[in-house]
Amino acid sequence: GAAHDTAWQVGTTIPIGASGNLKLGYGARDTGVTNGLPSTTATADVRAWAIGYTYELSKRTTLYSFFKRLVNRGSSKQTIFPPGGLAAPTQLHADVNAFGVGLYHRF
Q1: Is the link from the previous residue into 83 a cis peptide, with omega within 30 of 0?
Q2: Per-residue pLDDT tens over the stretch 54-71
Q3: What is the pTM of this model?
Q4: What is the pLDDT of residues 2-34, one digit of tens each?
């Protein structure tokens, strides 16, 4: 059949105490595209999950941390935060991880 592209994502925020939030997310992208490889090649599919935590120091200042894993399947070589983010994998079936911590302030 014709190539297709289906993507979905779910997430939730769970309050922890008066100032914290646990954030969870999971998503997937399924395609009928083999990225130029023979039609017998598995399609370029991706799964991703993430966990994060935020803590409000004040009404305008928040600490945050997160971990995200992107799982490449088939002929996919996706990365996190494109473009200009992490380098794309050079091999098939390579997972990409990202971890971050920081502080943001709203002016």
Answers
A1: yes
A2: 999 999 999 999 999 999
A3: 0.78
A4: 566 788 999 999 999 999 999 999 999 887 665
> What DSSP assignment string belongs to 33-77?
--TTS-TTSPPEEEEEEEEEEEEESSSSEEEEEEEEEEEEEET--
Looking up tokens 């598995």 gives 42
Tokens coding 58: 């004040």
